## 1
Amino acid sequence: MLFLDYQPDLNETDIEVYKAIISEVNAVASMSIRELAEKSHTSTASVLRFCKKFRCTGFSEFKIYLSAYLESLKEEKEVKTLDFESELLNFLARTQDKFFEDKFDEAVHLLMEKELIIFIGVGSSNVVAEYGSLYFSSLFNMAIRIEDPSNYPINYLSTELAKKMCIVALSVSGETTEIIQYLNHLNLSESSVIGITSSSNSTLSKLADISITYNISLEKINEADITTQIPAMYIIEKLAKTVRNRMETQ
């Protein structure tokens, strides 16, 4: 709680003091003990007892610890923001590498040969898949999204149709179960697969004919994957625009 690494035993009066502090946490440093007592509808003695439960001899010491705690939170937030921006800048720099450009060029040539593009993804990647299908359809060719890959296995696909298709599989980790199972149904077909993922060592990268990886750190809050999808969207947009430009110059 606050700058403590444990939950102190607070009574009802302490809770009132705590609520008053939280409601104006950034202003507490400039408050007097009497002002906090009035704001919390308690007494100065109650505020002092509260401070002692936070291992402080008095209100002045409590304010010092609280200010240091708030500053540490601010610094942590700034570091995370810088890390996020640095990762995106590093990704953009890697798009100029020969290895990335070669893989990208292979994907462009493959897409130019196809008549139907199918996008698949799960979770936030499903949203990107929908965006990709709309973007591709607007620029150069018919594209659709499979909303629920687990319910659309390709068991009966003619060789002629399969050869005209390209599946663009999106998965940040490259290990999404539904995507892997869907692609396994293509083992005996003639369909081509482009994988867009963060990991070059993932199952998706191994199953795809062409894998374009962006190497961004995975980020989770509890069990929710909140890894940025900006690199995947960048790749999709650049692929579509490049294919469109090359087809126009043919």
## 2
Amino acid sequence: MTPIPFVDPNGDGLLGFHASTVRLDSGAVVAVLAGVAVVAVLVLGWSWGSWRRRPAIGRSVTALVATAAVVAACGAGANLLGGFYPTLGSLLGSSPNPGEGTVADIGPDGTGLAAALPLIAARSADGHGSTVHLLLHGGRSGITRDADVYLPAGYTDPDNADLHYPVVEWLSGFPGEPREVASLFGVPDLVDAAIATHRMPPAVVVIPDINGEPRFGHDEECVDAEHGVADDTYLSTDVADWVRATLRVRTDRDAWALSGWSSGGYCAMNLALRHPDLYGVAVSQSGYDRTPSDVVTGNLLGGRADLAAANDVVVALRGHPAPLAILVTAGDDETDERAALERVTAAATAPVTVEPMVFPGGGHNQNAVRAQLPVIVDWLGRHLPPPHGTDAPTAAGAEVVPAPPVPARALPTAAPGP
């Protein structure tokens, strides 16, 4: 698929130039930087014995230049494969999706939300949703992490004061963080557009941090680790409880969705299956179907077969007690993710429905994510109910599903806040 083009929404920038127009994720950039690196290394070798005056300074300067050129070439190659910074603007923090949608930092547990409402209302008047940032503490898990929350246009409108909105919990991959969902992937802009064109009902999008700090070497896969952090509890209980207590949202399971990419995709499926009382919709974008155990995750489940089975998507699908709509995607170049897609599709039985979707081209990188997101947002729009006039779905006959039992485990150690 062709990657989504990046557009400067503020115009052409200073003197007709904007950093978002300079692509970094191209073979030409890698080739040029590799050529510069080769030349720099050759010059270093040729000039090493040629310095007559101040040889230490000359050698140091040429060595630094050569090293910088090699590092830049290697970084460009990694960026081409991973799609981390598609443009110069994204590297500098000004693109592809500038942060004007983030209107305020509303403080610990959103205590400053009321003060931000006029800013949210001003953007809403122009037909735009707003994103607020907060530090969210989990009373059950002991975890404190960053989160972003998108509120749709109209949320602050007095005429909508009785409306309760559907919710999407959007989960980044590893080692991602909440701000990347907007700054790299442009999810709030995509949701804005889908709502404006009636392809998606107005919805609240919650973007919790699934990784915490340290950002690298800290992949916990959204599970309650045997002797570690209770990420499942934080995401499915603490975050959800805060949303229900603070925002006007629907509480029926059919109005709650999980969506994520890579490890976030596994998290979305696994959490939805583990908590049938909470979620009715899930999207796994290039995710997998079981908790990995590698040098980055470590042994999260302590070698316990019961915990491994309780966090295995295929196992959970066999006895899921409630309707659940799942979208599972992969690129046709993603061998492992396609295999997981096929296993999940084969294992699904009623009342669960799984829709597999394989995208042409596109490996396991952020360019592929961006290219696929419009399709995923539209799919979510078809599976989410509209805002409800009252928060009384059970009175309307919605099914209430009890939470399933989970294996006993050691009390987790709370992660320190950032």
